[in-house]
Amino acid sequence: MGGKRIKKTEPNRKVLIIDDDPDFVEAFRRTLEGRQYSVTVTGSRPQAQETMRGDDPDIIVLGTITPAGEAFRVHQWLKGHPRYRDIPLLVIDAEYGERAVKGWRIFEGMQIQADEFLAKPVEPALLVPRINSLLEEAFRRIRVLVVDDHTMVRNGICAVLSLQRDIDIAGEAVDGLDALEKATRLLPNITLMDISMPGMNGLEATRLMSQQCPQTKVVILTQYEEEENMRVARQAGAYGFIPKHAASSDLVTGIKTVYAGRLFPTLFAHVADSLKDKASPG
Fold this sequence. Notes:
Layout: E1 14-18, H1 22-33, E2 38-42, H2 45-52, E3 59-62, H3 70-79, E4 89-93, H4 99-102, H5 106-109, E5 116-119, H6 124-138, E6 142-147, H7 151-161, E7 167-173, H8 176-186, E8 190-194, H9 202-212, E9 217-222, H10 227-236, E10 240-243, H11 247-259, H12 266-279
Parallel strand pairs: 1-2, 1-3, 3-4, 4-5, 6-7, 6-8, 8-9, 9-10
Helix pairs in contact: 8-9, 9-10, 10-12
């Protein structure tokens, strides 16, 4: 199972350039194609909109278009469209002396929602690392191992996560031993761990996983949400604690929070702090 967008292993990613400066476009196109990018060029807002109705690009470079205000209209259309608003966007404004003709006006710039904002003149070769960085971030995916002894529960969790374009289901496990074997082999970023399972339970599996698979952070899923259970889970090495009744609303947020290096939720972080305080001398 996986998200809607599939990570590509080759650099043949699609770049859409929207710009009516032929010299800049030609130099930029050659630079990108020399690095194995697939490049499409449009020089106006109607052309860009027509192109976008076909195959989606992986990244959009929105440059300068005459008359002034056209680039902003493209920007507003992209960010207001549910299909296009999450595509990485690199905006390149006109040179200072040309901004009245084809650049971004001050009030437009205040509303910009681009991932990068630059101004001409700029060397196309210097844009490639920025594009690489934006694409790497856009295609970064969180690999999740789902551990629960109930098939319907696992299926429900996987169904929720499969809707997220930045989350992949690395695998599923039915108990603690199965989870340890798959975490070692599949190297997930996050393991969603049920507590009550036959054989090795989730807490014991969490203790062993924190020792044997330090690259994997465990988020506990449980029916029991008392603070004492949170303390035990944190002592076992868990980074998150989500009651099953709240899983549908907290699941994605919890995964992303823990992946970013923070404990989830806030109460669990407070419980962890209290454990530190008790462990401190004096």
